[in-house]
Fold this protein.
Amino acid sequence: MKRAITSPLGYLWAMPNTLLGVAMTPLTLLSGGRVRFERGAMELYGGFAAWFLRNVAGGAGAMTLGHVIIGRDKPMLDFTRDHEHVHVAQYMRWGPFFLPVYGLSSLMCKWKGKNPYLENRFEKVAYGLFPCFGEPPAQEIAQAAATAGENKPA
Ligand SMILES: [Zn+2]
């Protein structure tokens, strides 16, 4: 998986989805959010990114668009990073077809009376490898608060 993440072809194939995420950058920065780069992916959190997750993405803590991971805040990004990177790998495999097949899988679940999120075949793989339900453990929040000094205005 690591080789795939660093593959230029993987970045290129996932690019249409990555650009959707990149498009959220200006609004996120203008609304007080932040950008950082971790493990070969761009991470957006706070501001518009947090608003988007709350109001458009059904209250998700984080979500992935190609090589962009959108998170509610830093602790949530740290908590969900392994899980979201499974999706990054899925984007690199499916490229522009990822969102349609992800949506199709959810529709099939709904049709069969299953949970369209948790029973989605791509989520089952991601949760199977890295379960990250609910809120980040208190320890991670404390850790993030301890390093938050870098973000405080002088
Ligand atoms: Zn997921």
